[in-house]
What does this fold into?
Amino acid sequence: MTASLVLGFIRRTSRKPFMVAGCAVALCTSAATPVAAAGDTSGGKPTVVLVHGAFADASSWNGVVARLQRRGYRVVAPANPLRSLSSDSDYIASVLDSIKGPIVLVGHSYGGAVISSAAAGNPRVKSLVYVAAQMPDKGESPAALAARFPSALANATTSVPYRAGGISGTDMYIRPDKLHEVFAADLPQSMTNLMAATQRPVAVAAFSEKAKAAAWRSIPSWALVAKQDKSINPDQERFEARRAGSHTVEIDSSHVAMISHPDAVTDLVLQAATAAGSAHTSRVAATAGGG
It folds into this structure.
């Protein structure tokens, strides 16, 4: 798909601008850049950090990024390495260490498992938001959760061996002929064809690794259940949200809710950000007053 075709589609759907995973055109590069703007213009609002999941990249958040920036929020959308749960979590934790002030940490899909470990022990992470996400408990793997709640994804992937820097392993991709049905059924076929070609694979080992922490046990959380999700069983998303005591919404969406329903996802992030901002303001006021 050429840049002009993508731009034409966005113009026709201006209220819901779809941004593709693995976007290869210049149109998609600006909002996904994980570099904070010079000077803090957020007015004391928390920084929102958006972590993508498997088979996607940071550009999948573009619609949400644009909406949050229009609201005056500082947004960072880092590249999730997708190599192992522990190393991915460590990497995202290092990104969080570079950010000053309160943080709202958001994860989609496998990114949910990553943020659950990355936020552990970081007092500046005030809220967690899970979008059609995996939320393993400490000592639990994403694969174990998926086995309890089977989905169509299990029969829609292909494995490819890789070698890099003396390390070898196996990457997992969604089969191109299955991506529209399993991953993004509410997006146009032309867009999912592009997503299939540009998807970022995840190392198979990342799904079998047990989580080293579950930050949702101590940090307030919000969860979005995608009722038409065929990559993660919606019943798994409901179970996880209940277990975590998350503030939960359900919408009629495929797995990529942040692309097909950016308004709903942004609204949920804003709820978490408002709660985080209120708590931060109360603490600042108490400190100023000697409380």
The CA atoms of residues 86 and 212 lie 7 Å apart.
